[in-house]
Amino acid sequence: MKYDYLIVGAGFAGAVAAERLASQHNKKVLIVEKRNHIGGNAYDEYDKHGILIHKYGPHIFHTNSKKVFDYLSQFTGWRFYEHRVLAKLDNKLYPIPINRTTINKLYNKNFTREEEVKRFYESIKEKRYPIENSEDIVISQVGIDLYEKFFKFYTKKQWDLDPSELSPSVCGRIPVRTNNDDRYFTDKYQFMPKDGYTKMFEKMLNQKNIEIVLNTDYKKIINDITFDKMIYTGPIDYYFDYKFGKLPYRSIKFEWENHKKEKNQEIAVVNYVESEPAFTRITEYKYLTGQDKNSTSISKEYPQSEGEPYYPIPTEENRKRYLLYKEKADKLNNVIFLGRLAEYKYFNMDGVVGRVLKEIG
Ligand code: FAD
Ligand code: UDP
User: Fold this and answer.
1) Which residue's C-alpha comes closest to atom 9 of ligand 2?
2) CA of 7 to the centre of ligand 1 (A)
3) Which residue among 349, 350, 353, 360 is best mutated to probe the pocket of ligand 1, counting the most ligand atoms within 8 A of its Cβ?
4) Where are the beta strands (DSSP E) in the chain?
5) What is the pLDDT of residue 361?
6) Which domains does the chain have, with CATH numbers?
7) Which ranges of the chain have pLDDT less than 50?
8) Which member of 55, 74, 129, 323 has the greatest number of CB atoms within 10 A?
9) What is the pTM of this model?
10) Is the shortest distance between the CB of 94 and ligand 2 below 6 Å?
């Protein structure tokens, strides 16, 4: 059998690419996935207690792109869900991103107007110029105290780096608010796939032009198949046999618990922003899915340096190493590198979908 495309990886990047090529360009596609399931890190499944969980940690869909939202809507219905997170500090819970409620509660203030909160930030923030790292970006907005309370230790746990060693784009993902909007995201479209991510992927990939082989590293079969082009969504350093050394990826160990009660915490995600405990956050999945069950499942996230590659680590040194790989990748005419691991970029799901739609159409 000859394929038009070999696609490595069945996550968002690989699945959207396969779907487009098969349905819009009438291409014959073979997807090779080394895990035993499709969906990449967005994969969800029912655990033994009947709770729909995200095996690789909480995935909340949000986008400002109508194009991305309309595209995915062909394969799933949606459940309206706006994500909220509380940060645990001194045994009290505060809204994160930092907003007016956070400030009032933490500093015993009674601000009611945005102007007052703005002036408060003005009084505590420090000038940093240029903004070179994640410490600068936070301190230049809210000063040292809020930085130390909410960012310093969480970031250290998550990345095993001080915020000053990380690109400003990391902590810059989290806005600072003067109003009392306590949503984690302000995107126009905030929904969860009605029947879960895996069902959505199944619908995307269930086409006559797409074949899927699971449990297989592409390097094991590449010499046995014939294809014209490849789309590669795995780690870029692995593709080139670590020629320029390993690119570090941050991993996570998930600890799972099920509790025989309706709810375990008061919101979907609680961030543990102090140095102890060692985990960064607890997610309670029923909040994300809206499932009605009399037990509840949670995950605790322990960041690790070894294990499945989940996060590219945005430091200057890693970026330089990535560019060496990219230069080689750009010279290959029949291989396209797409997605979080192949482009070594801290993409959200919608970013990956948008990227692939742009590349393939
Ligand atoms: P992946 O999902 O990693 O897919 C790559 C696939 O390639 C994998 O299935 C892998 O097994 C396969 N593969 C790798 N190497 C090989 C090989 N040699 N042979 C065959 N197959 C191979 N985004 C959001 O928008 N909202 C969120 O709330 C959110 N939360 C997240 C939480 C966590 C803990 C993590 C880790 C990520 C989160 N993301 C979130 C980001 C989201 O997971 C990614 O944007 C998205 O999954 C990237 O898709 P991808 O296809 O590029 O990569
Ligand atoms: N962050 C933090 N404290 C928080 C939330 C986030 O220090 O309470 C920092 C941390 O470095 C984290 C980054 O901001 O990795 C981005 O947070 P986000 O919630 O977007 O991370 P993700 O969901 O991608 O793991």
Assistant:
1) 171
2) 15
3) 349
4) 2-8, 29-32, 44-46, 52-54, 62-63, 78-80, 85-89, 92-96, 189-193, 210-213, 226-232, 249-259, 269-272, 281-284, 296-304, 311-312, 335-337
5) 86
6) 2-79+190-247+314-360 (3.40.50.720), 85-172 (no CATH)
7) none
8) 55
9) 0.98
10) no
